[in-house]
Amino acid sequence: MADLADIADVGRDARRGGYSRHGFDRVELELRAWFTEEATRRGLDVHPDRNGNLWAWWGGPGPDAVVTGSHLDSVPGGGAFDGPLGVVSALQAVDVLRAKGFRPSRPLAVVVFVEEEGGRFGVACLGSRLMTGAIPPEAACALTDPDGVSFGEAAHRAGFDPLRMGRDDAALASVGRFVELHVEQGRGLTVPVGLASSILAHGRWRFTFTGEGNHAGATLIEDRRDPMLPASRLVLAARRAATGGARATVGRLVPNPGGTNVIASSVDVWLDARAADDHRTREVVALITEEARAAAAEEGCEVRVTEESYGDTVHFDRGLAAELSSVLGDVPALPTGAGHDAGILAAHVPTAMLFVRNPTGISHAPEEFAEADDCAAGVAALATTLEHLAR
Ligand code: HGY
Ligand code: MN
Ligand code: MN
Ligand code: MN
């Protein structure tokens, strides 16, 4: 049976702990091969789409298909469940339905979206954003990883034609409903399985502070234009601005050139900001940006701000959520601060998310965990959902 244990050794990150599995890298290609083999073994027809997403079809493709799935990539040093739990649970739900002799009256598919975390190319949900036209293919293909390899080049090496990437109306038209199962990220659930009601508005901004590179020992303090100072003040400004349920995080700060005995010439800082609605998110980012600009000016540095990705609040389809809640025995629906491919598709097709309880709430870290019984309850809920929607 397809299981997280099958891939437990794929993409382990010895240095960071946890897993580092990124779009089109060697590890993710190994995971895609594993998925293709597992899906084929179940008699599903596996077809990649033009944007690098993998679709395993039970009948179809399309129209009006019931689609489930998630992603196999991770954040750097991420946990084992975020993404793969949704893919493994989908395969196990297919096993449950086939074992009881269920025959879907409409096509059913399991999809694996590429680069959901943006851990390599910096923009989250890249595969689902490409498919829905939420990002122009030229912009997506021009994104580069820390080694300077572009998404277009990485896709080409994986056998995809960057020139064919972009909004895929045929793929979108084939989807009647989309349901993603995911490990809960946070600790809102007191029962094994819940539904998502909404996703916070959220985005990523890149701040590049530029000063003057110089010698750490030979340069007097008064002669410096050290970009690390405004970068550091941005980190603290993010914490101060994130009030009233808003969240602002700097998880990545890269000084250039990054020598211990070198005053950086520039520093790149990535801000992840989220809040209940667009207005509040923009307000938080504006506060932080104002402080960053003032800090840069005081230190004689320049600052350039780039919005790298942004998505407004997602409200999942109420009718579908209510329908599934009743089919599943009144499971609770709760908001989430985490983004998902389901959040991208929700603007195009009726979409729902099933959450599996996370006892610690920790995610995007090696400690991410869900109890086996709760995972089994998630598979049962997904099988019931798919049978209900595809019967
Ligand atoms: O960033 C997120 O919330 C998602 O895990 N990509
Ligand atoms: Mn994630
Ligand atoms: Mn995820
Ligand atoms: Mn020297």
From TrEMBL:
One example GO MF annotation: metal ion binding
Domain of life: Bacteria
Species of the source: Saccharothrix australiensis
Cofactor names: Zn(2+)
Tagged with keyword Ribonucleoprotein: no
UniProt cofactor note: Binds 2 Zn(2+) ions per subunit.
Taxon lineage: Bacteria, Bacillati, Actinomycetota, Actinomycetes, Pseudonocardiales
Alphabetical keyword list: Hydrolase, Metal-binding, Zinc
Family: Belongs to the peptidase M20 family.
Residues binding Zn(2+) 1, per UniProt: H71, D82, H182
InterPro entries per UniProt: Amidase_Cbmase, Bact_exopeptidase_dim_dom, Peptidase_M20
Entry protein name: N-carbamoyl-L-amino-acid hydrolase
Any Pfam family the entry gives: Peptidase_M20
Residues engaged in binding allantoate: R204, N261, R274
Annotated positions binding Zn(2+) 2: D82, E117, H364
